[in-house]
Amino acid sequence: MKKTIALIAHNSRKTDLLNWAKVNLNLLRDHNLIGTSNTSRLINDMLDLDVKPFGHGPSGGDIILAAKILQGEVHKVIFFIDAETPHGHEHDIQTLIRTAVINNIPIALNRASADLVILENV
Predict the structure, then answer these.
(1) Do the beta carbons of residue 42 and residue 18 sit within 8 Å?
(2) Are 80 and 114 in contact (CB under 8 A)?
(3) pTM exceeds 0.85
(4) Which of 13, 54, 85, 121 is least surrounded by Cβ atoms within 10 Å, i.e. has the fewest?
């Protein structure tokens, strides 16, 4: 069974996620991929991947992803966050992170942890 991985990045980290995805292209192809609308569009436009969009992060996308985790639809989350900039939807981001942690879903918040999560066969 293919695992579903969510790919998300704050605006200032989208290029970092794109570069990471390029390096891990072959591994990512073995999974079902979903992402917030802007992140999925960027990855789909730049790489030969099919990332299905599920919503815009600041407009409830983080909450949609948390719900998908609760429904057992997401197995891993790669979320390149910008920890230096305040976000208006910070509460939603914390809800997403908390939901992943409580439900034992691997969540990577930077490149180093993303490298570990993509290699893990969980």
Answers:
(1) yes
(2) yes
(3) yes
(4) 121
